[in-house]
Amino acid sequence: MKTQRLAKVRFVALLGLAGIAGLAFPGMAFPAENDASPTITVQIYNYSLASPTVLVGAEREAGRILRMAGLRAVWLECPVGPFTPGPQGHCEKAPEATDLRLRVLGAPLTNKFQDTVFGFAVHPVLASVYYEYAARRAKSDDADFEAPIILGCAIAHELGHLLLGTNSHSDAGIMQPRWESNQFRQLMIGNLVFTTEQSKLMREQARTRIVSFFWPSGLWAEDPVIIGATQQQEQFLTCVLHISDDDDRLTVVILEHQKFLKIREAFHAHKTKLAFSSLLARRIYLSARMFRDYEMLLRCITHELGHFATQSVYEGNAEIAADRFRKIARQRCPSEVQ
Ligand SMILES: [Zn+2]
Known about the structure:
α2 packs across α4 (143-164), α7 crosses α10 and α9 (294-310) crosses α10 (315-332). The protein is built from 10 helices and 9 strands. It is 43% helix and 14% strand. The longest helix has 22 residues, at 143-164. β8 and β9 (283-287) form a beta hairpin. A 5-stranded mixed sheet has the order 2-1-3-5-4. Zinc ion is lined by residues 114-115, 157, 161, 169, 177.
C-alpha cells in the first residue's frame, strides 16, 4: 500500500514537471485549451500481470499524451476470460466509429508484426502492448513509478498507429520505431509525444473515421479469433495458427465437452474425437478436453490446420502439411498448456 501511495504522489509530481518542460519544445503539439477535442473510446482488455494501479497509471500517461495531441481518451476496462459472469455492460455495446480496442498482453510470442518490442497494431481498431516490456525496462528500484509511464507511452504509440495508419513511424516524437536511452529520457520527463503534423492527422481521423467492417468478427483482421480459451490456451493457439500463415482469418471455438459433442453431431463430423473443422466457415472446434494432453493437442490442432492449408478434406493430405506445422510449433510455441 505504502509503495502505491508513494508512486501516485510521484506520478502527479512528474505530470507537473512535464507540463513545464513541454513549453520548451515548440515543435511538438500543444493545442489550445478550448479546442473542441474529438473523443476516442478505448476498450482495454488486460491479459497480463499488470496490476490495476499500473494500468490506471498507464491510462493516465497515454491520456495525457493524447490530450497534448488534441484528443480526449475515454478508457473502458473490460473483463477478460471465457467465464466472465454477468453482463459486460459498455464492453458489449455496439461500437462507435471512434472505438478502439487495446489488449495488454504479457510478452510477445511471434515476430510477425511491426513493433513487436513493445506492442503491435492491427489497423484500424486493434492495438496490443506488452506489459513485460514496460516491467523490464523500468528500473528495478523505481518500477512502481516507471512501469506505468513506459506502458502508457507504448499504449499511446500503438493507438497512434490505429489513427495514423500502418506506415506511421517517424524520426521524431513518440512514433519513433525504436526507443533507446535518448527516447527513454524524453519519455520519463513526458516529452515523447506526437508531432504537430501527427496530432492534426489524428484529430482528423478521430472526427471522420468510420469502422466499415463487421464487428466484432472483422475486428481481428489477420489475427485468429479464439473463443472460450484461457489466456495460456489463447497464446498457444495464436502461436500455432500463425505458423500456417494463412491469409484468411480462422476462428477457433473451444467448447465444454458435452456441447462439443452436440455440435459435432450437427456437423456430421464424427471422425475425430476432440476436434473438427468446417473448411467453408473457416472454423475449428475443439473440445475443452483437448487441453488435458499436450501431445494430443499439438497433433490435433496441426492436423486441422493441415486441412485448411491444403484445402482438402482428406486426412492424408492434411497430415503432410500438419507434419511440418508440428515441427515448427515444437520450436516456437509454448510447450505447456492448461
Ligand atoms: Zn510503431
